[in-house]
């Protein structure tokens, strides 16, 4: 983690309302120190270089859920039912990030329904959190590249609203326009269950992207964001999921398509991500057949939450002798290039 941003003045989510009166009270997980700090084995000089690189460059996480969950995982469903997930301002202030693509409630978007992904679920999730964003001055709701550059200039963090599936548009294409109007700037095609645009993770398909898809993405100038949700990006060399397993995928993708087409979207949150998977196992319905054998972890060491992710990624790159230019590309430069083209 980095020192707390000077622009963060201690705002906590829904600070303009009265907790327990205006909205339900939950004891939340700690944003800082919930799991032991990752030890990347860096020297003081290398640590200093990590801090400098994050200070000098635009760092963009292409996929997170920048919220804090209840400490008791048994309360996650009730908490999400309120629609008022709490944005993790305190944690983001330690992240070193310039911008975070926030994917809101994803497969746990069960506000008005048990199965999630309804149009109304999305409106609750977006509306509450964006209202809260409008009440403070540390996070900015970014809808343009200029907003991201301005956040860097002002020492703030830009939050880009994204949704992991297009399920909620059903057969109403105008809803894409409406979501754009609400400030959504990124959308996945399908999550677990198939929708009208494509098959999801619950379908009988290999979960990881095959080489031909990664190559096709790179050939069109795109960027691959590496994922780190628990028990996803394992590797043969590091079967117990950690930063090292994810970086094996990084090296593989760089070898395959070059350093201009790779970045990171660890897909983390503040709270027990494995607990979320257990809570919503029926909703997600992930199946992989045959599933590779791997140990279960309580959390992904080194990539557990948005506060620590980019410090540890840059630390790994520094320790493996990547140049400042290469690191600048993979922590944000590549994404910025694509955003300038597609937004
Ligand atoms: Zn996600």
Topology of this protein?
Layout: H1 44-56, E1 60-64, E2 67-68, H2 76-81, E3 86-87, H3 89-92, E4 99-102, H4 119-133, E5 139-141, H5 145-154, E6 157-163, H6 174-181, E7 184-187, H7 211-219, E8 224-226, H8 243-257, E9 262-264, H9 273-279, H10 281-284, H11 309-319, H12 324-342
Parallel strand pairs: 1-4, 4-6, 5-6, 6-7, 8-9
Antiparallel strand pairs: 2-3
Helix pairs in contact: 1-11
Bound molecules: zinc ion.
Keywords:
343 residues; 12 helices; TIM Barrel; alpha/beta; globular; five-stranded parallel sheet
Describe this structure in words.
- This protein is an alpha/beta fold and 343 residues long.
- The protein has one domain: Metal-dependent hydrolases (TIM Barrel, Alpha-Beta Barrel), CATH 3.20.20.
- It is built from 12 helices and 9 strands.
- The chain has helices spanning 44-56, 76-81, 89-92, 119-133, 145-154, 174-181, 211-219, 243-257, 273-279, 281-284, 309-319, 324-342, and strands at 60-64, 67-68, 86-87, 99-102, 139-141, 157-163, 184-187, 224-226, 262-264.
- The strands form 3 sheets. Strands 1, 4, 5, 6 and 7 form a 5-stranded parallel beta sheet that branches.
- The structure holds zinc ion.
- Zinc ion is lined by residues 63, 65, 103, 106, 164, 267.
**CATH class division:** Alpha Beta
Helix content: 25-40%
Report, as a whole number of angstroms, the end-to-end distance.
30 Å
CATH architecture: Alpha-Beta Barrel
Bound molecules: zinc ion
């Amino acid at each position: 983690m980095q020192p707390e941003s000077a622009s963060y003045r201690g705002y906590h989510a829904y600070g303009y309302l009265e907790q327990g009166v205006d909205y339900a009270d939950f004891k939340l997980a700690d944003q800082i120190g919930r799991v032991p700090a990752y030890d990347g084995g860096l020297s003081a000089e290398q640590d200093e270089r990590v801090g400098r690189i994050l200070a000098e460059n635009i760092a963009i996480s292409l996929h997170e859920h920048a919220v804090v969950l209840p400490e008791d995982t048994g309360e996650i469903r009730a908490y999400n039912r309120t629609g008022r997930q709490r944005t993790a301002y305190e944690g983001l202030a330690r992240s070193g990030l310039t911008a975070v693509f926030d994917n809101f409630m994803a497969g746990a978007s069960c506000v008005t329904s048990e199965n999630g992904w309804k149009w109304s679920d999305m409106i609750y999730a977006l509306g509450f959190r964006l209202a809260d964003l409008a009440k403070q001055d540390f996070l900015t709701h970014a809808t343009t590249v200029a907003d991201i550059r301005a956040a860097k200039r002002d020492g703030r963090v830009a939050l880009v609203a994204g949704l992991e599936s297009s399920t909620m548009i059903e057969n109403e294409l105008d809803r894409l326009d409406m979501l754009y109007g609400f400030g959504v700037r990124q959308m996945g095609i399908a999550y677990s269950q198939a929708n009208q645009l494509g098959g999801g993770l619950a379908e009988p398909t290999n979960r990881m992207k095959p080489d031909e898809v990664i190559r096709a993405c790179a050939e069109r100038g795109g960027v691959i964001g590496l994922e780190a949700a628990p028990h996803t990006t394992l590797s043969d060399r590091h079967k117990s999921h950690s930063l090292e397993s994810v970086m094996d995928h990084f090296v593989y993708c760089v070898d395959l398509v070059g350093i201009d087409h790779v970045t990171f979207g660890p897909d983390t949150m503040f709270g027990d991500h494995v607990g979320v998977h257990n809570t919503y196992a029926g909703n997600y319905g992930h199946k992989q057949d045959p599933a590779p054998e791997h140990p279960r972890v309580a959390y992904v060491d080194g990539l557990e939450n948005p506060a620590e992710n980019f410090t540890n990624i840059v630390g790994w790159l520094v320790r493996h002798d990547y140049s400042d230019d290469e690191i600048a590309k993979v922590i944000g430069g590549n994404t910025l290039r694509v955003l300038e083209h597609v937004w």
